[in-house]
From TrEMBL:
Family in the record: Belongs to the metallo-dependent hydrolases superfamily. NagA family.
Name of the featured protein: N-acetylglucosamine-6-phosphate deacetylase
Top EC class of this enzyme: hydrolase
EC numbers: 3.5.1.25
Keywords from the UniProt entry: Carbohydrate metabolism, Hydrolase, Metal-binding
Catalyzed reaction equations: N-acetyl-D-glucosamine 6-phosphate + H2O = D-glucosamine 6-phosphate + acetate
Amino acid sequence: MSNTERKVVRVLVTYFTVMRGKILEWDIIEVLKSMGIILQRADMELAHTRERDRYTKHALTNTIKTARVNQVVSKLQRDKDHNCSCLVKIVNARLIRNHKIIDDDVLYLYNGKIIDPQTYFFTFGDLPDVVIDAKGLLVAPGFIDVQINGAFGVDFSQMQSEEKMRKGIDNVAKGLLKYGCTSFVPTIISSGIEVYQKVLPFLKPRKGNKTNGAEILGVHVEGPFIEPSKCGAHEESHLRSASGGFSDFVKVYGLNEGKDQKDQIVKIVTVAPEVEGVSDSLEDLVRAHITVSLGHSSATVAQAELAVEKGARFITHLFNAMQQFHHRDPGIIGLLGTKRVPRPYYGIICDGIHVHQNSIKMAYDSHPEGAVLVTDAMAAMGLPPGDYTLGDIPVRKIGDERVEVIDNGRLAGSVITIDACVRNFREFTGCSIIEAVEAATLHPAELLGIQNIKGTLNIGADADLVFLDDDLRVMRQCISNNNTKY
């Protein structure tokens, strides 16, 4: 072994002793052997205690100059961690980041996270496992859908065998990736207690990856504490008051007030604040780490503002299943213009059927930072026209866009996809590409309080990405470093 090779070995042994603790002999012996450097076991004694103490991470990084040493460092670090994803470098991208489009930029992904360029360079060198050429496409955070009742023949509100439920949830999670949706909040409409008890455990938060599909962020329970006259497609027999206060919510959903947010299955609850006992329970729901949404309600604007004072932060499918706007009492819709309380986020279904495009533009013009695009999709999404169910309600998909309750013709959820919502929102409102994308990424993440890890391309965020053309059509996705193309 030459003196130069001994110096390289000394640096490597010292580096890994400092950075990773005790190093297994075969790691460095075998990798260096593959490079043509024959290392004897005696050479492992090169790293003495006083030398290790002398070195710091940055000093060692500056010492390791050659490309082949950087390659060894990169390979050993990645191979030692069997759970990590590969190192990915995305080039020629137009990043949607920090409310701007940054042209011809580069993004670095490792272990399911977005990492900063300095970490990439000093730790790994310039040797990624995968290089993705974005070819000038827009690269945005993955879309987040916080209200989706089902898709591809699966209805989250229906009890089935455990095997069918697991398989159905997996099929939806994987199928949503095609539309750029990398995270979602499965939604259960008003149901009997037995449905919540059986179904909720299957919808607990679950990380997204190539195997699982889109990440499950928790559950949105839409009802049963809603106003009967505004129940829409919900079965009226399932509706109830909260005369027992917060304990009724605990009983119905199986909540535990002491749970941390990350462990709470229920993340969003839609309630009508005028229903008995609901207003008095709002602060307890917030303390239980649940996002309170107002919907299926005839609440006055005063009742709605009081609910916001008590912690409500969201409006469920704005304009639908609520008191119509009146100039003397605008009801829940009036929250978009309130000055007395913070204006909440609002979900809006941009299929051009549930809400007229002029109404969508009015909402956007009054409160653009609050828009959260939702599909409110049901089991018929992704399937041909025909008869399906929404919870216990028989519904019919008419053409490719409309779903109605068979008995009364009421609208019953949508069949639109989240990427189509983004495109429609831009068309209906005339907003920028950035604003349209943020309504399906940053805003829902802020609503759920996860904006540091979702809905952003900032350093440390999850590596959930969607590649879009200039018409905002999905070209490919990346979830936890696993990239897919459709």
